[in-house]
Amino acid sequence: MKSEIAIIGAGRIAYSLCSALVKSNYKIKTVVSRNINSAKALAEKFGIKNYSDDVQSIDKSVKVFFLSVPDSEIKSVANKLSKCKLGFRNSLFIHLSGAENISLLNALRKKGAATASLHIMQTFPSKKIMSLKEVHAAIETDDPSAYKYLTSLSSALEMIPFKIDSASKVYYHLAGVFASNFLAGNLYSSHQLLKLINVNNEKVSFDILNSTIHTTLKNIRNNGVAFALSGPVDRGDIKTIKRHLTALKKLSDKKPESNYFNLLLNNYIEQSLNLLNLVKEKHGALNKKHIEIEKLLVQELRETVKSK
Questions:
Q1: Contact 118, 92 (CB under 8 A)
Q2: C-alpha separations of 88 from 61, 79, 83, 147, 191 in Å
Q3: What is residue 20's three-state secondary structure?
Q4: What pLDDT does residue 256 have?
């Protein structure tokens, strides 16, 4: 039986979650947001009759609660919900944070409710509906019935569920940050560098890089990260690396936005050092050229630290 659901929070992820739930015939009873206009907009988007800016308005028939609120608000919202007149012992409260664990829902657990978190490994940069199909979903709970429910729900939404424990959850979230957020940051850096050759349009910048980005991702999927590696670090091309470093240092000295290019210089050094770990995995060990590169990068890193 699909219990009635309350969505608490009407931000970006709520739109994609509601879309998937409605398509899979889950009954969303109400939407609650501290901003009544946000609650109304989300409810009307998906034909949900009830919406409110007050958690006290939630009907007792609701048994499943998704807390789609910022991480910093999960605990306070849970505390407010714990003071509502609800059938806690037959209810399940789920937050959607990737970094925070279920301890933030302890006020509800003390009432006898089951608690869990469901983190969807997908980006939600806006309220535009993002597909959840074949997206992995990490389930954190110590309640067997909650795990069974969320596994079933994830499968119904065509996601790929897996269990995660509270202690190691932060590493899972960090993995997502490195894979997604830092990728966006690196592409921003690429665009800033392409602007130096008068490619000022971000879309054109991406089009230039599009083939190498997608080929790299394809090679990673087919051959693994290490064997997708190419470029000057991999081939031991210290001459090119020295040219890169010189160019970035000049930008740091001459450009009015030198603080940004100082960061870019540090980023280049640290990421290049990290690439040497891939080289070790790919080739079994560093050769003489790779060791020379490592010594150069370590020295450059020390100098940047001293200059701060």
A1: no
A2: 11, 13, 10, 17, 51
A3: helix
A4: 62
